[in-house]
Amino acid sequence: MTTLILKKPHLSEKATFLKEKNNAYVFVVDKTANKKTVAQEIKRLYKVEVSDVRIVNLPKKPKNLGKTRGFSAGFKKAIVYIKTGQAINIV
């Protein structure tokens, strides 16, 4: 059974800046993902050459809604740098 490594693209202001400036794309990935598996999955899905992968594990954050207290879910994201002249079409 294979697990889905890439969950979704992470679209934010900082991610857009990274895409324009450094040719880097940000994805939310599975908690068990590592740099090698992320690079292989990007190559397989988007047919581009990956030059570097950086992974950030973001913790859960406390949230309040009235008297109810809880946590927002933490997640892991990968910043994928690809070779110059190549692009990934994320809609």
From TrEMBL:
<dbReference type="InterPro" id="IPR012678">
    <property type="entry name" value="Ribosomal_uL23/eL15/eS24_sf"/>
</dbReference>
<keyword id="KW-0689">Ribosomal protein</keyword>
<dbReference type="GO" id="GO:0005840">
    <property type="term" value="C:ribosome"/>
</dbReference>
<keyword id="KW-0694">RNA-binding</keyword>
<comment type="function">
    <text>One of the early assembly proteins it binds 23S rRNA. One of the proteins that surrounds the polypeptide exit tunnel on the outside of the ribosome. Forms the main docking site for trigger factor binding to the ribosome.</text>
</comment>
<dbReference type="GO" id="GO:0019843">
    <property type="term" value="F:rRNA binding"/>
</dbReference>
<keyword id="KW-0699">rRNA-binding</keyword>
<keyword id="KW-0687">Ribonucleoprotein</keyword>
<dbReference type="Pfam" id="PF00276">
    <property type="entry name" value="Ribosomal_L23"/>
</dbReference>
<dbReference type="GO" id="GO:0006412">
    <property type="term" value="P:translation"/>
</dbReference>
<comment type="subunit">
    <text>Part of the 50S ribosomal subunit. Contacts protein L29, and trigger factor when it is bound to the ribosome.</text>
</comment>
<protein>
    <recommendedName>
        <fullName>Large ribosomal subunit protein uL23</fullName>
    </recommendedName>
</protein>
<dbReference type="GO" id="GO:0003735">
    <property type="term" value="F:structural constituent of ribosome"/>
</dbReference>
<dbReference type="InterPro" id="IPR012677">
    <property type="entry name" value="Nucleotide-bd_a/b_plait_sf"/>
</dbReference>
<dbReference type="GO" id="GO:1990904">
    <property type="term" value="C:ribonucleoprotein complex"/>
</dbReference>
<comment type="similarity">
    <text>Belongs to the universal ribosomal protein uL23 family.</text>
</comment>
<dbReference type="InterPro" id="IPR013025">
    <property type="entry name" value="Ribosomal_uL23-like"/>
</dbReference>
